[in-house]
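Narrative progress, year one. The postdoctoral researcher (J.K.) led the effort to move from monomer predictions toward full complexes, under supervision of the PI. The following entry was the first complex the group processed end to end, covering 318 residues in total.
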Amino acid sequence: MFKMSKKVEYALISLLYMAERKEGELTTARELSENFNIPQEIGGKVLQSLTRNGFISSVQGVKGGYQLAMDAAKINVTDVIAAVDGPLQVVGCAVEADKCNCEQLSYCNIRSPMEIIQLKLIEFFNTISIKDLQKNTIPSAFFHGNIEQRSYPVKFSDQ
Amino acid sequence: MFKMSKKVEYALISLLYMAERKEGELTTARELSENFNIPQEIGGKVLQSLTRNGFISSVQGVKGGYQLAMDAAKINVTDVIAAVDGPLQVVGCAVEADKCNCEQLSYCNIRSPMEIIQLKLIEFFNTISIKDLQKNTIPSAFFHGNIEQRSYPVKFSDQ
DNA sequence: TTTAAATCCGACTAAATTTGTCGGGTTTAA
DNA sequence: TTAAACCCGACAAATTTAGTCGGATTTAAA
C-alpha cells in the first residue's frame, strides 16, 4: 500500500477548504465533517493539531471556528504530515541502526541508500504546498528522471 | 509516520545486495536473512514476489539462489512497492470516490488535488531506480521547488 | 538413491498501528 | 443561562502489518 493516514488526508482536505475561504471567514469542524464525511471527533483533533502547530488559528465559543493562519504557499505537505502524524520515517532501517548487523560496522552501503530515499521523499513533500494543491501546480521538474516513464496503473502486483 | 512496509524495505535491501553481485553469482534467502536481520520466511516470500514479477530469477535446489533478472537501472521503486505490497494508494479520497459526498457532485476541487499528490508521489518513486540507490544519485531536479527549503529534522509534531 | 540445501506457497497467529469513540471540560455570543 | 463551538486525555474497535507454521518441490552431491 503506502498510503497517507486518514488524519493527514483530513488535514489536507481541511486546509484546502479553508484556503478557498476569504480572509476572516471561519470554518467549523462540523462543517468539514458534514461536507467530507470526516468523523467529527477525529476531525476536531486534527484541526487542534493544526492549530497547535500554527497552520490555522481558532476562535472559541459560539460563532467560533478555524481559519488559515499562514499563507497557503508556506504550508507544505511534509509539515502537515509531521504535525498530525509525527515525523516521517520511511524506513526502519534508517532509524533502528542498532538493530542492523550489516557486515560493515562503520558504513553500511545498504542503509545509506535507504536513508537517502527517505530524505528525498521528505524533500519532495516539502516542495508541495497547499497553494500548489489548490492550483494543481506541483513543481514538476523531477519528471525529467533518468528512467522511462510509464502509464498507470502499475502492472505488477501480488494481490 | 508514513513509512514503507518492512516487505518493501526487505525487497530494496535484497535488490541492492544482488545488484552489487557479479553476473551469475547467486544470493540465497538465508544469506540475506543473516546479513540484514530479515526473518527468513518473510524474506523468502518477498524474494518470491520479486521473482514472480520478473525483477529477479531463481534457481532451485542445492546451490540455488536468486539473481537480478533486469538491469538495475530499469527497476524502479514504484514497481518494487507494487510487487510486494500491491498498488500504491496514497489517499483513500482519491480511490473511494463513492464515499465522498462533497458538495459538487461531478467535480470535487478537493479530491482532485488529492489525486494529484498521489500521482506525483508515484511518479517520484518511479524516477528512482535501484541503480540510483546504488550510486546515491537520485535525480534531484525537483529540489528547485517554489517554497523555502529547510533543515531537518522537522520541527512540528504532536508526539 | 538418499540426503540436505534451497526455492516455493497457502493458511494462520501475533503484534502494532490506525481509526474512531467516550466523556468530559472550556470559551463565548446571544 | 443556554447552546454552539473549541479543547483534550483515555479508551476501544478495526485494520493492517509482521511474522510463524507446516508443508511441498527441486536439485547437487555424497
